[in-house]
Amino acid sequence: MPIIVNLDVMLARRKMTLSALAETVNITLANLSILKSGKAKAVRFSTLAAICQALECQPGDLLEHRPDPRDLRSADE
Amino acid sequence: MAFLHLTSLLHVCRLLVMLSRLGALVAALILVFKTVDVIAGKPEVRLVLNTTTPNLFPALHDFVAGFYDGAAGKSHRPERGPLPALRAGTSGFEVAADPQAPLLRYEEPSPWKRLVLLYLGASDDYLSLAWVVFFGVVSWLLHRLLQDVKPSTPFTLANAHRLRILGLWILGPIYFGQALSYLALRALIPDFYTPNLAEPLSHYVRLNTEASLPGWEIGLMLLVIAAVYQRGVELSREAELVI
């Protein structure tokens, strides 16, 4: 997956724990762990908005597009 | 309609599957008793005939016959074909007029041949080895399938697999096995000829599995349901990873 979730970086910057964030945005710790570990397939806009509000950041601070060189090659072809 | 709710349906289906497992056990026991009876009993064999079409690939036979009849300008054939003339058992066999269907009666000295005829489903009204095995396997698979289905997790990969096995079981051993059974039947029954029919009577003997076992349509439908079910499993797994 070329989308990298930088949730752990933002949590460290805001000095916030995953449990505290889970409590603030009203998401289960298990779901937040799935998001943090990059196993999530999709994120709802409502979830993203709630996390951005809690961490006082922009979606771009949380998500990063890092394409695989092989994907770029196949797109050129 | 509360009875159509998933939980209510599961309760009803579990009860029915439990009864069908019991039925499969009883059928297996009856088959054992019939086995002993056939080996030690009278040598007489009674087989049901359908003289409209030969027993192997009847649909294909009807299609070809209809094509030639149409080309020759003949009218539609009657539902029941020419019944063989009744005759006494002078040539070792007898064709008896039954209200439902004509019967072929003859004496089979070999108990093993009589046993194979019973197991193939030729000499009994409903019992056959395929029927007993089918009921056993199906009731067991349905039992496992219903045990796995929970209102919270209705889709599981194991159940998709079980549905596919069920479909393949009906398509393969049951449907194509029946064609092989008819070939075996032709080899087992002596060639008795009657004036009205070109082929020997063994080509018109019918197995009870034609009515008691599901056809290829059910197998194909189960394979489609299994594929849809598997897609449901994949979608529910993906949905679990949407945060």
UniProtKB/TrEMBL annotation, chain A:
<dbReference type="Pfam" id="PF13443">
    <property type="entry name" value="HTH_26"/>
</dbReference>
<dbReference type="InterPro" id="IPR001387">
    <property type="entry name" value="Cro/C1-type_HTH"/>
</dbReference>
<protein>
    <submittedName>
        <fullName>Transcriptional regulator</fullName>
    </submittedName>
</protein>
<dbReference type="InterPro" id="IPR010982">
    <property type="entry name" value="Lambda_DNA-bd_dom_sf"/>
</dbReference>
<dbReference type="GO" id="GO:0003677">
    <property type="term" value="F:DNA binding"/>
</dbReference>
<feature type="domain" description="HTH cro/C1-type">
    <location>
        <begin position="13"/>
        <end position="62"/>
    </location>
</feature>
From TrEMBL, chain B:
<keyword id="KW-0472">Membrane</keyword>
<dbReference type="InterPro" id="IPR021354">
    <property type="entry name" value="DUF2975"/>
</dbReference>
<feature type="transmembrane region" description="Helical">
    <location>
        <begin position="166"/>
        <end position="185"/>
    </location>
</feature>
<protein>
    <recommendedName>
        <fullName>DUF2975 domain-containing protein</fullName>
    </recommendedName>
</protein>
<feature type="transmembrane region" description="Helical">
    <location>
        <begin position="12"/>
        <end position="33"/>
    </location>
</feature>
<keyword id="KW-0812">Transmembrane</keyword>
<keyword id="KW-1133">Transmembrane helix</keyword>
<feature type="transmembrane region" description="Helical">
    <location>
        <begin position="126"/>
        <end position="146"/>
    </location>
</feature>
<dbReference type="Pfam" id="PF11188">
    <property type="entry name" value="DUF2975"/>
</dbReference>
